[in-house]
């Protein structure tokens, strides 16, 4: 019980810190003090580093806590669920590679300094299927877990709700940043669940 309470507290701390450090208010405040070039070159790296460090306490509790098994899927359905998790990993990997691995982890600047413009958001490839393929892949990893415990279920539900809240604020930021381009993209591409009907991409420049 104490592990669950401690996990929940650490997860709330991480969620609050993660959300605040990604907020427009915080980045605008910080940019005034360290400069725009610093933000474009280094902020993503430090943001990722801070996110990893602050999630470690909750992560350690997660991997070390045993709880009652709610269900355990056996073959052949276990193979199907593991296939779903593999598909989630592939989707996440494709999305990260498409936007640039080094830019994603923060080792590459978040702008094209030749033109002084931010790199435009990607609307093709896996991003033409869903607007948030990394989150879709994450949901596949969680939903297709073949062994579900009480602790895992609580964790997955909390994380699932947090992702939806995070998407809401992320899309508000992207709408401010890209204006009608992102509004058009939202109208054409589903948020998390891909559809068979594909609409043609609009130009992004």
Q: Count the E strands.
A: 4
Oligomer: single chain
Query: How would you describe the shape?
Result: globular
Number of helices: 8
Distance between the termini: 54 Å
Strand order of the largest sheet: 1-4
Description:
The protein is mainly alpha-helical and 205 residues long. It folds into 2 domains: 1-65; 68-205, no CATH class. Helices cover 67% and strands 5% of the residues. The protein has 8 helices and 4 strands, in the order H-H-H-E-H-H-E-E-H-E-H-H. It has helices at residues 2-21, 24-34, 36-64, 77-99, 101-105, 133-143, 150-178, 180-188; strands at 69-72, 111-112, 117-118, 147-149. Strands 1-4 form a two-stranded antiparallel sheet. It has a two-stranded antiparallel ribbon with strand order 2-3. The radius of gyration is 19 Å and the shape is globular. The termini are far apart. The model is unreliable at 201-205 (pLDDT under 50).
Layout of SSEs?
Layout: H1 2-21, H2 24-34, H3 36-64, E1 69-72, H4 77-99, H5 101-105, E2 111-112, E3 117-118, H6 133-143, E4 147-149, H7 150-178, H8 180-188
Antiparallel strand pairs: 1-4, 2-3
Helix pairs in contact: 1-3, 1-7, 2-3, 4-6, 7-8
In short:
This protein folds into 2 domains: 1-65; 68-205, no CATH class. Helix content is 67%, strand content 5%.
Summary tags:
5% strand, mainly alpha, 205 residues, disordered C terminus, two-stranded antiparallel ribbon
């Amino acid at each position: 019980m104490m592990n669950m309470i401690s996990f929940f507290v650490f997860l709330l701390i991480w969620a609050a810190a993660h959300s605040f450090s990604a907020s427009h208010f915080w980045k605008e405040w910080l940019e005034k003090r360290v400069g725009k070039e610093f933000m474009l070159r280094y902020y993503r790296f430090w943001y990722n580093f801070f996110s990893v460090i602050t999630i470690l306490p909750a992560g350690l509790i997660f991997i070390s806590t045993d709880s009652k098994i709610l269900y355990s899927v056996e073959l052949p359905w276990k193979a199907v669920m593991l296939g779903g998790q593999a598909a989630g990993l592939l989707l996440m990997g494709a999305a990260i590679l498409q936007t640039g691995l080094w830019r994603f982890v923060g080792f590459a600047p978040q702008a094209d300094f030749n033109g002084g413009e931010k790199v435009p958001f990607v609307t093709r490839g896996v991003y033409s299927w869903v607007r948030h393929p990394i989150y879709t892949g994450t949901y596949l990893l969680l939903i297709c877990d073949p062994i579900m415990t009480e602790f895992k279920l609580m964790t997955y539900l909390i994380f699932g709700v947090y992702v939806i809240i995070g998407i809401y604020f992320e899309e508000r930021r992207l709408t401010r940043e890209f204006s009608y381009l992102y509004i058009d993209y939202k109208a054409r591409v589903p948020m998390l669940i891909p559809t068979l009907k594909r609409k043609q991409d609009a130009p992004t420049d």
